[in-house]
């Protein structure tokens, strides 16, 4: 083998030498005489330099135009999808502009001043950011909106059209389906699985339950939900199934089991091909490639006109989990393990939400440097007790445990608490936001607690937790804070402790509904007079949609 390599090296050396000589001869042969002043086409050094600049500008402009054209083509190919309306420039969305205008007025900033000084807005990647999607499914001959506009042209043919299963989004205000086979904001693993799922449903003739069409099956597949585990790129699939009526034959659920077996077989085939370190696409261009983390079935037997994808009373079944995985997919915004079974809320853009957590940590660290934040008998930089309302599985709170003596998180979803404790038990270090890992002592675990209650109940039943909290974190749904929470936050706490440290309180409000935030701001600041806005920032977590995530930092004296 070494001889062959040496011979090859000699051959390469000879080839390079001869090639070099021929190039030099060619260069001498083609070299034109240098132009002198007064000759036609003579250019001064400055003129030559300007000509080079113009050529470079022209090339850059052509490349930029081409890139812009490709991006616009992505949008035009999905021009009926309402979630892509502002994808080319997310900051022009009406809600974003309203938020900028609102904080400009509150900060009394002069007209024309850059909003980064009073309300900076962060926009992350525009493509492939969505790691979770809940989609409708239909099988119809008519009223299916096609990409690029218009309805299915097959309905105009003389031959009776064959119905086809499609997966996508409902057009706002209707039950007309917009297929999204290659949605640019979806993670590519979502698009891959949706494509395979459509094909398998058509091949196996899986019954489809249509909420709005009495001519279709009265049982069958109703919705699908796909989530991607960031660390492994595997897909968590939920099949939302409408069961037959009790009086009917339960064997009608067999197509569901057949579909699941088929998907598992495809996933295992992909896994084996990957384990062999080969590219499955080179073996069979038609091979369907999916890597499943798990398959769940949620039985939603609610009224057909109900718009809820998951029914609170519906049962769940885990049908398949890959051998190397747990039931719940995990994510780690700042290397804190978080668990997300399909029954809990998960941010669709965890990468973007991680930036929010980093900014919250930065603001809290600033508070630690204030003299009023230090305990009177020590210089230890901790912020005492933290109460988290609408906490989910602890996405925010668990990433802040090193900054507090104790954290009490809460949420009303009964599936959250198990995920919270599973994550808390695994935390040994935490990222301080700069990439450095800070160790967490074991005794800290006892001070991290969770309450399965609504925020309204927590502020009443656990009022002492709110009263002693140095920091309160709220991350409510789009409707904003519940009235009892507003009332509790604006109350005089009647504490007998006159210690300056205990008298200070901060509120960190993470809002996904700007109209509700504006209403809550007026109640907290303008009506009660208790709270003062310290800082606010915007994060566009859903580029293309008319939405903004607002993070506001308030302070008050108890």
From TrEMBL:
<dbReference type="GO" id="GO:0006396">
    <property type="term" value="P:RNA processing"/>
</dbReference>
<feature type="active site" description="Nucleophile">
    <location>
        <position position="512"/>
    </location>
</feature>
<feature type="region of interest" description="Disordered">
    <location>
        <begin position="1"/>
        <end position="83"/>
    </location>
</feature>
<dbReference type="GO" id="GO:0008173">
    <property type="term" value="F:RNA methyltransferase activity"/>
</dbReference>
<keyword id="KW-0808">Transferase</keyword>
<feature type="compositionally biased region" description="Low complexity">
    <location>
        <begin position="60"/>
        <end position="80"/>
    </location>
</feature>
<feature type="compositionally biased region" description="Basic residues">
    <location>
        <begin position="50"/>
        <end position="59"/>
    </location>
</feature>
<feature type="region of interest" description="Disordered">
    <location>
        <begin position="139"/>
        <end position="164"/>
    </location>
</feature>
<feature type="binding site">
    <location>
        <position position="475"/>
    </location>
    <ligand>
        <name>S-adenosyl-L-methionine</name>
    </ligand>
</feature>
<dbReference type="InterPro" id="IPR053304">
    <property type="entry name" value="RNA_M5U_MTase"/>
</dbReference>
<protein>
    <recommendedName>
        <fullName>S-adenosyl-L-methionine-dependent methyltransferase</fullName>
    </recommendedName>
</protein>
<comment type="similarity">
    <text>Belongs to the class I-like SAM-binding methyltransferase superfamily. RNA M5U methyltransferase family.</text>
</comment>
<feature type="binding site">
    <location>
        <position position="411"/>
    </location>
    <ligand>
        <name>S-adenosyl-L-methionine</name>
    </ligand>
</feature>
<dbReference type="InterPro" id="IPR029063">
    <property type="entry name" value="SAM-dependent_MTases_sf"/>
</dbReference>
<feature type="compositionally biased region" description="Low complexity">
    <location>
        <begin position="1"/>
        <end position="14"/>
    </location>
</feature>
<feature type="binding site">
    <location>
        <position position="347"/>
    </location>
    <ligand>
        <name>S-adenosyl-L-methionine</name>
    </ligand>
</feature>
<keyword id="KW-0949">S-adenosyl-L-methionine</keyword>
<dbReference type="InterPro" id="IPR010280">
    <property type="entry name" value="U5_MeTrfase_fam"/>
</dbReference>
<feature type="compositionally biased region" description="Basic residues">
    <location>
        <begin position="20"/>
        <end position="31"/>
    </location>
</feature>
<keyword id="KW-0489">Methyltransferase</keyword>
<dbReference type="GO" id="GO:0032259">
    <property type="term" value="P:methylation"/>
</dbReference>
<feature type="binding site">
    <location>
        <position position="390"/>
    </location>
    <ligand>
        <name>S-adenosyl-L-methionine</name>
    </ligand>
</feature>
């Amino acid at each position: 083998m070494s001889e062959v390599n040496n011979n090859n090296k000699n051959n390469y050396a000879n080839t390079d030498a001869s090639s070099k000589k021929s190039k030099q001869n060619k260069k001498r042969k083609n070299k034109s005489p240098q132009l002198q002043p007064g000759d036609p086409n003579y250019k001064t050094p400055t003129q030559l330099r300007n000509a080079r600049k113009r050529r470079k500008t022209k090339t850059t402009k052509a490349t930029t135009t081409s890139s812009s054209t490709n991006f616009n083509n992505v949008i035009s190919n999905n021009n009926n999808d309402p979630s892509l309306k502002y994808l080319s420039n997310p900051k022009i969305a009406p809600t974003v502009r309203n938020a900028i205008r609102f904080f400009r007025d509150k900060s009394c900033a002069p007209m024309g001043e850059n909003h980064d000084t009073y309300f900076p807005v962060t926009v992350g990647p525009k493509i492939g950011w969505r790691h979770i999607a809940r989609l409708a499914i239909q099988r119809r001959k008519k009223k299916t909106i096609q990409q690029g506009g218009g309805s299915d042209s097959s309905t105009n043919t003389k031959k009776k059209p064959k119905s086809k299963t499609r997966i996508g989004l409902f057009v706002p205000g209707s039950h007309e389906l917009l297929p999204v086979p290659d949605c640019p904001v979806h993670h590519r693993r979502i698009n891959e699985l949706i494509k395979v799922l459509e094909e398998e449903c058509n091949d196996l003739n899986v019954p489809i339950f249509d909420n709005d069409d009495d001519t279709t099956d009265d049982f069958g597949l109703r919705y699908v939900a796909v989530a991607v585990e960031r660390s492994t790129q595997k897909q968590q699939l939920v099949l939302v199934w409408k069961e037959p009526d009790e009086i009917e034959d339960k064997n009608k659920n067999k197509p569901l089991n057949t579909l699941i077996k088929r998907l598992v077989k495809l996933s295992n085939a992909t896994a084996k091909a990957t384990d062999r370190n080969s590219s499955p696409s080179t073996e069979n261009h038609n091979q369907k490639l999916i890597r499943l983390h798990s398959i769940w079935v949620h039985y939603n037997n609610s009224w057909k006109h109900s718009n809820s994808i998951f029914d609170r009373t519906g049962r769940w079944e885990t049908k398949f989990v890959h051998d190397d995985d747990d039931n719940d997919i995990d994510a780690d915004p700042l290397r804190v393990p978080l668990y997300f079974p399909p029954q809990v809320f998960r941010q669709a853009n965890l990468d973007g939400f991680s930036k929010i957590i980093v900014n919250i940590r930065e603001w809290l660290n600033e508070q630690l440097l204030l003299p009023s934040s230090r305990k009177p008998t020590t210089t230890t930089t901790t912020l005492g007790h933290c109460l988290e309302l609408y906490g989910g599985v602890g996405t925010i709170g668990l990433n802040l445990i090193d900054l507090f003596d104790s954290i009490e998180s809460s949420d009303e979803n009964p599936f959250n608490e198990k995920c919270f404790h599973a994550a808390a038990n695994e935390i040994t270090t935490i990222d301080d936001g700069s990439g450095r890992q800070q160790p967490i002592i074991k005794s800290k675990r006892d001070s991290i607690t969770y309450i399965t209650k609504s925020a309204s109940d927590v502020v009443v039943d656990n009022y002492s937790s709110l009263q002693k909290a140095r920091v309160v974190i709220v991350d409510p749904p789009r409707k904003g804070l519940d009235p009892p929470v507003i009332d509790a936050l604006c109350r005089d706490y009647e504490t007998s402790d006159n210690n300056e440290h205990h008298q200070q309180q901060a509120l960190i409000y993470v809002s996904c509904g700007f109209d509700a935030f504006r209403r809550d701001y007026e109640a907290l600041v303008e009506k009660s007079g208790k709270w003062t806005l310290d800082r606010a920032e915007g994060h566009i977590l859903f580029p293309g949609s008319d939405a903004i995530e607002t993070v506001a930092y308030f302070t008050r004296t108890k």
